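Protocol step 4 of 5: obtain the predicted structure for the target chain.
Materials: sequence only (see below). No template structures provided, no constraints applied. The aim of this step is simply to have a reference model before the mutagenesis design in step 5. Sequence pasted as it appears in the construct record:
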Amino acid sequence: MCAKLLEQNEKPFNLIEAAEYLGVSKSCLYKLTSSKQITFYKPNRKKIYFKLSDLKNWLFRNKSESSPEIQQAADHKSRKGN
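Step 4 output (structure tokens):
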């Protein structure tokens, strides 16, 4: 597992590093893993590891668009409808 991550140029984060990166406590991150709200890897059924790309995906979920983005989408939709 770790070799595959390294092949992709992604250093695996351990629980402490991942919690620090996300700005959450270790117990909060444990809760996220136990409720399957964040992707994690558990080789040999021991330590938990995370990929940076998975942490970023979790961190940037539920995007709230700005007013200009909403207006741009509405303009595009109205032009497409004509």
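Step 4 remarks: The first helix runs from residue 2 to 7. The chain has a mean pLDDT of 85.
Proceed to step 5.
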